[in-house]
Automatic annotation (TrEMBL), chain A:
Domain MacB-like periplasmic core, first and last residues per copy: 34-254
The protein's name: Peptide ABC transporter permease
Entry GO terms, CC: plasma membrane
Pfam annotation, one family: MacB_PCD
Species per Swiss-Prot/TrEMBL record: Rhodanobacter denitrificans
Record has S-adenosyl-L-methionine as a keyword: no
From TrEMBL, chain B:
Annotated protein name in UniProt: ABC transporter permease
Keyword Membrane among record annotations: yes
GO molecular function, one term: transmembrane transporter activity
Keywords: Cell membrane, Membrane, Transmembrane, Transmembrane helix
Localization per record: Cell membrane
Organism ancestry: Bacteria, Pseudomonadati, Pseudomonadota, Gammaproteobacteria, Lysobacterales
GO cellular component: a single term: plasma membrane
Domain MacB-like periplasmic core: 20-266
Organism of origin: Rhodanobacter denitrificans
InterPro entries: ABC3_permease_C, MacB_PCD, Macrolide_Exporter_MacB
Transmembrane segments: 21-44, 312-331, 352-382, 402-421
Length: 417, 435
């Protein structure tokens, strides 16, 4: 079949053809970018934190009427209170392991600073940003981190300090990502780094495979895996404890925590949010991303439905309008399948023109989004998939009206309209 | 004539029920989605104090070390305690208040209530007058009381309801963090959105329950929270430990009644920076900013990018739906070329045909617009069920209702004009002949 009669017929419906092509182009541009955004969000939400997240929960609590932490006596007293809590939690039957920590991945409460290879450098070029976890010798077991080089902290390594004190940090454990950045040649263990522009050296004693920073928002994107563990308990009037329950006993352990802590010292505040499972922390960190992905997905789906319905509607009109011509063609010997193909090819031409414009629009829209929002360049694969999907939807949508056209009997040609 | 055309339009629409439903639904979905997202955007980018935001300014100065200085870089977002107190005591503005946020444990007298934490704002006396916070009972503390570290507190209406069952509690005692405070005022449900004076607490739907003098907080070492940004050997402080002198952690707001005063205040900030530099406290050249409320909110980009993206997506969706409807309407009108040709041949003017077709598309647009409004109400209800901090604020206000109406009318005209105009261009003779 030659394209000539199809093109000649389309020329008669210029406005309709332009509109439906435009609709396909806009749909393609919007859906490609929306799906790309969904893909990015899903990727973000699914990235592993490096923790063994099952059976893990966090206790955040605050003492009422505790001593201030800025004199040595107050710090010592606070440290005693913290160690009492830790002992009580470790003695619970459903608890496997407990570590104090100033934060936990995805909590969005972080202590960030800088790591450098020279002393007295801070937040300048070539300095690596990092998030600190101040914890103790139980950190690796509790968080479920995988040590890939060096050794873990021991009880003898652990110091304690007031939250504002400047203390030396003689040893640290860093993540593999941080080690690779600071020591591209490898062999980070035993090397010396300087924390937060300090003049006192810190020796890297171990490297863990992966540990995300507490920041889940875009603020933390460029140093998401640069975590540093410091074997120090921070003493203040509030403290966080990371607890690993025995397998499958998380809820029972969580339930036992408030009563246990109140029994140790009733002068404290524990509210509904104080004992939170890691699953809940993860869910609230990514709530906005999941919501956005669902919304985008729903809009895309409706958009595709509207466009498909538009194609069905328009083709149905054309079939009705050309009823008699179809009859004539059939009377002159065209087979049913020829009529079917006619409408299918016609749709392919219209959709083809639409997706050509759509590809340009999609890339243009992506470039505009990149300049206004934090957005990566859209991979060509997304656009190509989008093109194929749009063409397939066009073919699927045109099939029903085209089959109705192919069923027009030749006798129509002989009847007056 | 109108009634007749309306009748014709309804007949014509009834002939293709599925198609009519598709056109109406497409317009309704497009308008519903656009209005939902636009309303959320409108609520989020609203002015927290419409009558006064132009006179309230947020001064910024740069007290940081010379290390890491880059030319024309923004000064810090907050002030140090020393600078805050200096600027406060200089008193160069019509009103000024220094503040930070925190939380304090309330120990109710009633044994039926356990101690609980409430959000607190530690501020200075001008806060209430400057931000026009309405009092249900009593008033704020005086500047002298504030400097004297008075144990006085202003509480929010919700806390008053909880503790005193809504009675006038002025003069009564509230025990917080082991100290007795005298209640001097009760605020009448005041909660500006966005929470412009301190965006570190979360930008929306955040309200403090108690307001205490800043000096009292400094003396009692009450817990503070919010952001602190330090340089040099500064430590950020946690809980009841204050950040060190090389940290910015307080917000300072001023009221300047006219632009001349604002310009003068700017000069004052530069002079202040120069004086501090001469004293050796500041190391950098004067680097000051003086933004009013809306400029500050804009600079801080309080409206989440996701909300802007959603609005863009919804309008893209509306555009596709409109194009879809125009295309279908056009095909429909062209199909009736023969009928229109007969009417023309019988003496109907082009204008009459145009009016008839426009009424037909107008009906589609109007029904679609009404459907869109209903969908927008549903959409906003869905937004309110979501757990984000701004969810509760998503309501349709009169201005957005009007916008919806205008959008629906425009959508209708857009969807109807082109097809009607094209259909009127048909030459009647040609149509008659072909039959």
């Amino acid at each position: 079949m030659t394209l000539h009669p199809i093109l000649a017929a389309l020329r008669k419906h210029k406005a309709g053809v332009v509109l439906i092509s435009l609709q396909i182009a806009l749909t393609l541009a919007i859906v490609c970018n929306a799906v790309f955004i969904i893909g990015q969000r899903v990727e973000r939400v699914n990235r592993p934190t490096g923790l063994d997240e099952n059976d893990l929960f966090l206790v955040s609590q605050q003492w009422v009427g505790a001593p201030g932490g800025d004199d040595p006596a107050g710090v010592e007293k606070l440290d005693v209170m913290q160690r009492e809590d830790l002992t009580a939690l470790r003695n619970l039957p459903d608890v496997a392991s407990v570590a104090p920590s100033n934060s936990i991945p995805l909590l969005n409460s972080s202590w960030t600073g800088a790591l450098s290879l020279k002393s007295d450098q801070k937040f300048e070029k070539g300095i690596t940003r990092t998030a600190y976890y101040f914890t103790d010798e139980h950190a690796l077991a509790t968080l479920g981190l995988r040590l890939v080089a060096g050794r873990a902290f021991t009880a003898a390594d652990v110091q304690h300090q007031g939250a504002r004190d400047q203390r030396n940090r003689p040893i640290v454990i860093v993540t593999q990502a941080l080690a690779d950045k600071l020591f591209p040649q490898g062999g980070a263990v035993g090397k010396v780094v300087y924390t937060d522009g300090s003049s006192a050296p810190s020796t890297v004693i171990g490297v863990v495979a992966r540990l995300q920073t507490p920041a889940s928002g875009s603020f933390g994107n460029d140093f998401a895996w640069n975590s540093t563990l410091v074997p120090t308990r921070l003493d203040a009037n509030f403290a966080r404890y990371v607890v690993r329950a025995k397998p499958g006993r998380r809820d029972a352990a969580m339930h036992a925590v408030p009563a246990t802590l109140y029994a140790v010292n009733p002068m404290r505040v524990l509210d509904d949010d104080s004992v939170k499972s890691f699953a809940d922390i993860r869910a609230s960190a990514y709530r906005a991303d999941v919501g956005m992905a669902i919304l985008m997905g729903v809009v895309c789906l409706i958009l595709l439905c509207v466009t498909a319905a538009g194609i069905v509607g328009l083709t149905s009109f054309w079939v009705g309008q050309r009823h008699r011509q179809i009859g004539v063609r059939r009377a002159l010997g065209a087979r049913k399948v020829d009529i079917l193909h006619y409408f299918q090819i016609e749709n392919l031409l219209i959709a083809g023109a639409g997706v050509l414009v759509g590809v340009l629009l999609a890339i243009g829209l992506n470039m505009w989004l990149m300049s206004h929002y934090e957005m990566a360049r859209i991979p060509l694969l997304y656009v190509l998939t989008g093109v194929l999907v749009m063409l397939a939807i066009g073919q699927a949508a045109v099939f029903v009206p085209a089959r109705r056209a192919s069923n027009v009997p030749p006798v129509v040609a002989t009847r007056a309209a | 004539m109108f009634a007749y055309y309306l009748d014709l339009a309804l007949r014509s629409l009834k002939r293709n029920k599925a198609l009519t439903a598709l056109m109406v639904l497409a317009i309704a979905l497009g308008i519903g989605a656009s209005m939902t997202t636009l309303t959320v955007l409108h609520v989020l980018s609203g002015d927290p104090l419409p009558d006064k935001s132009g006179q309230l300014y947020y001064p910024q100065i740069d007290p940081q070390d010379i290390k890491g200085m880059m030319p024309s870089k923004e000064p810090p977002d907050q002030v140090t305690l020393i600078d805050g107190l200096n600027l406060l005591r200089a008193g160069r503005a019509d009103h000024q208040a220094l503040m930070t946020g925190g939380s304090v444990p309330v120990q109710p007298e009633q044994s039926s209530l356990d101690p609980f934490y409430v959000e607190a704002r530690y501020t200075t006396a001008d806060f209430f007058a400057m931000f026009e916070a309405p009092f249900l009972y009593g008033h704020g503390w005086t500047a002298a009381d504030g400097e004297a570290k008075a144990r006085e507190v202003v509480i929010a209406r919700s806390l008053n309801d909880k503790l005193f069952a809504g009675a006038d509690s002025v003069g009564r005692t509230l025990r917080m963090a082991g100290t007795s405070f005298r209640i001097v005022g009760v605020l009448d449900g005041w909660q500006p959105n966005p929470h412009f004076y301190d965006l570190n607490t979360g930008s929306y739907a955040y309200g403090e329950q108690v307001f205490l003098p800043l000096q009292t907080m400094l003396e009692l070492r009450l817990d503070r929270n919010g952001s602190s940004d330090c340089w040099g050997n500064g430590g950020g402080g946690v809980g009841n430990i204050l950040p060190s002198d090389t940290c910015v952690w307080l917000q300072f707001w001023v009221q300047l009644d006219n632009p001349a005063k604002a310009a003068a205040y700017r000069e004052f900030l530069i002079h202040y920076s120069q004086d501090q530099q001469a004293l050796g406290r500041f190391q950098r050249a004067p680097n000051v900013r003086l933004r009013n409320v809306m400029q500050w909110l804009d600079h801080q980009m309080v409206v989440p990018n996701d909300v802007r993206l959603q609005t863009g997506l919804a309008f893209g969706f509306l555009l596709v739906c409109l194009v879809n409807t125009v295309g279908l309407m056009l095909a429909k009108f062209m199909r009736r070329a023969a009928e229109l040709g007969v009417r023309r041949a019988l003496g109907a003017s082009r204008r009459a045909l145009f009016a008839q077709l426009l009424i037909e598309s107008g009906v589609v647009g109007l029904v679609g617009g009404c459907g869109g409004l209903l969908l927008a109400l549903c959409g906003l209800w869905l937004v309110r069920q979501r757990p984000s901090d701004y969810a509760a604020l998503a309501h349709l206000d009169p201005s957005m209702l009007f916008t919806t109406f205008v959008l629906a009318v425009c959508a209708t005209l857009l969807a109807g004009l082109l097809p009607a105009w094209r259909a009127c261009q048909i030459a009647p003779a040609l149509q008659l002949k072909s039959n």
